[in-house]
Specification:
The protein has about 160 residues and is mainly beta. It has one domain. Bound molecules: zinc ion. The site of zinc ion has 8 residues, from loops.
């Protein structure tokens, strides 16, 4: 059989029954892993481009605007408070199941950051509006594992 085989008729298609075991390890990358470790410590970090002055959250290794390298010196702590820039209620889960109660998702610009972070938003009865001040709520330290879920949700600032 040639290395490249062109199939011109459906009856030329061959198949083999069986399975291939695949294993993999997902990594969040250098900046992503450090960012998640920050969440585990109850801190939210960003990286601020020294040329553009744009602050990314989550932290990045390269500026998407000027392609500058964002090294150790560019890491800055942001938040934990921020401003709600948009929000929505999700009524249907990814598997099609109806969510009851609906899940509220917010788009937050953390203090000191330019980029927006999407995360769960706690509805505590405060009327939601663009410009509402919100704050990050972390899981208890013993429950944190270095995941985006270590940041439990944002809630309106009392
Ligand atoms: Zn830049």
């Amino acid at each position: 059989m040639p290395l490249k085989e062109r199939i011109s008729h459906i009856d030329e298609v061959r198949s083999w029954q069986g399975s291939i075991r695949l294993e993999g390890v997902y990594t969040a990358g250098v900046a992503g892993e450090r960012w998640l470790r920050g969440l585990q410590e109850g801190r939210i970090y960003g990286t601020r481009c020294p040329r553009c002055r744009y602050t990314y959250v989550p932290a990045r290794l390269f500026c998407e605007r000027c392609f500058g390298h964002l090294d150790e010196a560019t890491w800055v702590e942001v938040g934990p408070q921020g401003t709600l820039t948009s929000w929505t209620r999700v009524h249907v889960a990814l598997d099609g199941q109806r969510l009851s109660p609906p899940r509220c998702i917010g788009l937050v610009r953390l203090d000191g950051a330019d980029a927006l972070l999407v995360h769960d938003l706690l509805e505590d009865g405060t009327p939601l509006r663009v410009g509402l001040r919100v704050e990050a709520v972390f899981r208890p330290p013993a429950e944190r594992v270095g995941s985006i879920r270590d940041l439990a949700y944002f809630r309106p600032v009392p």
